[in-house]
Amino acid sequence: MSWIKGKICIITGSNSGIGKETAIALARMGARIVMVVRDQERGEKARTEIVEQTKNDSVDLMICDLSLMDSIRHFAEEFKKKYDRLDVLINNAGASFSKREVTSEGFERNFAVNYLGPFLLTHELLDLLKSSAPSRIINVSSGLAKNGKVDLNYLQSENNYTRTKFYSPSRSLGYDNAKLMLMMFTYELARRLKGSGVTVNVLMPGFTATNLGKSSGSLSSYVLFKMVRPMQQSARKGAETSIYLASSDEVRDVTGKCFAKKKETESCPGSYDKELQKSLWNKTESMLGLAPKRTMRAL
Ligand SMILES: NC(=O)c1ccc[n+]([C@@H]2O[C@H](COP(=O)([O-])OP(=O)(O)OC[C@H]3O[C@@H](n4cnc5c(N)ncnc54)[C@H](OP(=O)(O)O)[C@@H]3O)[C@@H](O)[C@H]2O)c1
């Protein structure tokens, strides 16, 4: 019997694309799914489809805007009122914006949804993940992280936002930078969680036909994104590594690694800078006003 049967799995951004396919596959295996989405209507529609397709009605829907830290804190509180354990957290939600914009809380949007949001959500749920151990955290990053740069003075891409290559639709360095930060967060968190029974890994799903790019804010990006559709794998294929990391016994004790195509792989060289990982962690904690956890000291 698969490890995942009966386990409670949060999947962010599971009304669409890779997240939805991940939810379908894990629901088929008997997991209890908590879909975390920002839009009630889109969420309900996807939930109905998932239940119909899998005949598993243990699929809950909760609302959270992952680009807003207040919304994340509120969601985490609500989740802890409803559930007394959490076995798998999949930080899947993501978006790419070509124009630089800030949220109502003052954070650049790529940075907020692709890095700061997952950092805070994980932090808020960590005690529950620890008390439910063995448990797993899975971060969905991107191969585009290799173009990213982490400059502690300009974490929100104030100085290197635009990428000008015409063939790079839906792209801005803001997205690449944030996905690189998500990788570095994974490696630092894995060290801090050593011995806790909570594993954390990051993955690169590959070039996948989803809605990513629709929200980029630029028509040319969107048109170009449509044009490359034939080169993209299906969302079901793109979800395979997330599904593997959530459910396979083979990765039960594996932590602090990067995966692609269901295999361990190297991420870009810049992601392995331990000093920068630590500094990024500290700076992020202070941006979020988080007190360093006594049990989460740097190793
Ligand atoms: N597709 C690719 O080629 C590719 C390649 C590498 C990495 N990835 C990564 O894979 C992950 C899944 O993306 P996808 O390709 O499946 O794209 P997608 O179809 O656009 O799915 C993204 C999901 O994230 C949700 N989301 C976006 N902003 C959010 C917010 N502020 N709060 C809550 N949820 C939010 C979306 O909700 P809405 O439907 O409400 O917008 C959607 O459910 C992302 O992290 C993406 O960066 C994708």
Structural class: alpha/beta
Shape: globular
Poorly predicted runs: none
Largest sheet: 8 strands, mixed
Oligomeric state of the chains present here: single chain
Distance between the termini: 36 Å
Can you give the mean pLDDT? 92
Q: Give, in spatial order, the strands making up the sheet with the most strands.
A: 3-2-1-4-5-6-7-8
Are any ligands bound, and if so which?
Answer: NADP nicotinamide-adenine-dinucleotide phosphate
- Helix content, binned percent: 40-55%
- Binned strand content: 5-15%
What are the secondary-structure elements, in order, as H or E?
EHEHEHEHEHEHHHEEH
- Radius of gyration, in Å, reads 18 Å
Total E-strand runs = 8
Alpha plus pi helix count: 9
Descriptive notes:
This protein has an 8-stranded mixed sheet with strand order 3-2-1-4-5-6-7-8, sandwiched between helices. The protein has 299 residues and is α/β, with parallel strands linked by helices. Helix 1 crosses helix 8 and helix 4 runs parallel beside helix 5 (173-192). It is globular and about 50 Å long. The protein has helices spanning 17-28, 40-54, 69-82, 109-131, 173-192, 219-227, 235-238, 240-247, 274-288, and strands at residues 8-12, 32-37, 59-63, 88-91, 135-140, 198-203, 258-260, 263-265. 40% of the residues lie in helices and 13% in strands. The model has no long low-confidence stretch (mean pLDDT 92). The structure holds NADP nicotinamide-adenine-dinucleotide phosphate. Residues 13, 15-19, 37-39, 42, 65-67, 92-95, 113, 140, 142, 205, 207-208, 210-212, 215 line the site of NADP nicotinamide-adenine-dinucleotide phosphate. NADP nicotinamide-adenine-dinucleotide phosphate binds at residues 13, 15-19, 37-39, 42, 65-67, 92-95, 113, 140, 142, 205, 207-208, 210-212, 215.
